[in-house]
Structures are given as C-alpha cells and as structure tokens.
Write a structure and sequence with these properties.
Blueprint (H helix, E strand, L loop, with lengths): L7 E8 L2 E11 L2 E6 L5 E5 H9 L4 E4 L5 H4 L14 H22 L7 H15 L7 H13 L15 H6 L2 H17 L5 H21 L10 H9 L2
C-alpha cells in the first residue's frame, strides 16, 4: 500500500449498504491523517496501525476512479497531497529521538538527582550503549529533562527549535545550538535592551564552562559560532 499515491482511497464498510471513503491528507513520519471524503472529518492513525487495518480486512483500498458516482465529482478540498519530509525534518526527528533516549533512560533508571554527580556517569554509560559520539553535558541533559516534563512528558517537546540556515549553521554541533538557545533565552528574560556583544560574551563564557566539563570527560572541545551569527539569530527572533 503506497500512502504517497494521491489516487489511493481507503474504504470502511459500515453496513451491507453503507461505506465510508477516506483519502490520505498528510503524512508526518509514522503519523497519517485521513480525511472522510463525504463529511470532511479528519482522523489520525499511526502508519503501522493503518497497515494492520488493511491487512486484516477492516479497511480495503481502491483507486480514486472507483469511487461511487455520487462522490467522484465531489470537491476534495480538504485532501492534500502528502508532503515529503525535508532533510531538515529528518535530521530534527533523529535528534529528538537521540535526546529522548537519554531522558527516558534517566527516568527508567530513577537517577536520584539531576546533578553533575549523578548525570555524568549515567551519560557516559548511555552514550556507549547507544553509540553516541557526541553526548550531552550533564547541564544539557538536565535541561532536556525539564523541557520533557514541562511539555507534558511528550517527546516532541525535545524537537530542536532551530532551523539550520546556511552552511556555517549546519556545521555547528547540536550542543552549541542548545547552548546558544539557553544563553539567548536567559538574556532576553532578564534584559529589555539587547546588547549583542554582551550576549556573545556570555555565550563564550558558558562555552568555556561546557568545554571544561568535556575535557574532564575526555570529549572533544566545541568550537564557538561567529559573533555575526549570534547577531543574526537575535535579529531573527
């Protein structure tokens, strides 16, 4: 079953003389949204679940041309051709899953406290387990956990909030992106006037601290972004 095929229609038999017809409205990862062609109602399914419903006969597939005459010419304004995921979307979801592995693992192991003492050895062990060559610092993991809980324990709350812009940005490690977010958010929370150099100085100071932790953990030091990049980031907020 090709869910990307715009001619695909899913049919649910309700009774001997009644059926509902659904078109695929959108696909995002493993989530599929179906639109009832007659009512316009929208329904969310996990892709594996949808495939199971077709496999066990609860849903069947037909081509759009096989729709009953009364529906063939009905405007399908709510039906949108599924959009293919961009490279950035795939990368963001991959990063979300990486963060979730650390957060979920810490919760499952009942880490006593989200402090350097407890998180540093946990991160070392977890990074080796999932073969992560760029593990987070203990401060970053503590921040991820806070974000996860405040989002209602929804792992999508761990999705990176930035969008890569230009080659230089794409070369920045995720940890640097996270640190920039933290510094800018904290600065804007406590200041009404933005001084770019002050923000950049605070970023460099925090990066020095982070690199000290990484050296102690035998990790490669992170390089800073440019001053111009911080300025652009602030101006685009």
């Amino acid at each position: 079953m090709d869910l990307q095929n715009p001619d695909l229609i899913l049919v649910k038999r309700l009774s001997e003389h009644s059926c509902s017809y659904f078109a695929v409205e959108s696909i995002a990862g493993s989530d599929v949204v179906l639109t009832d062609i007659e009512s316009g109602g929208r329904f969310n399914f996990a892709k594996p679940k949808l495939e199971q419903l077709v496999s066990n006969g609860q849903l069947r597939t037909i081509a759009r041309r096989e729709l009953p005459t009364k529906l063939t010419f009905k405007p399908l304004s709510n039906v949108k051709k599924p959009k293919a995921e961009t490279t950035e979307d795939v990368a963001s979801k991959k990063e979300m899953e990486r963060r979730y592995k650390y957060v979920q693992g810490a919760i499952e192991q009942s880490v006593p406290a989200y402090t350097e003492k407890w998180l540093t050895p946990y991160i070392t062990h977890k990074a080796a387990e999932i073969k992560d060559s760029s593990p987070p610092s203990w401060r970053t993991l503590a921040y991820w956990n806070k974000t996860f809980v405040e989002s209602g324990w929804d792992k999508h709350g761990l999705m990176p909030k930035h969008k890569a812009k230009g080659n230089r940005t794409k070369q920045l490690p995720q940890e640097v992106h996270d640190l920039i977010d933290d510094v800018i958010n904290e600065y804007l929370r406590t200041h009404t006037v933005v001084r770019y150099q002050k923000v950049y100085d605070q970023f460099l100071e925090q990066l020095d601290r982070l690199n000290s932790e990484r050296r102690e953990a035998n990790l490669v030091e992170l390089k800073p972004c440019s001053y111009r990049w911080i300025v652009n980031r602030l101006q685009n907020r």
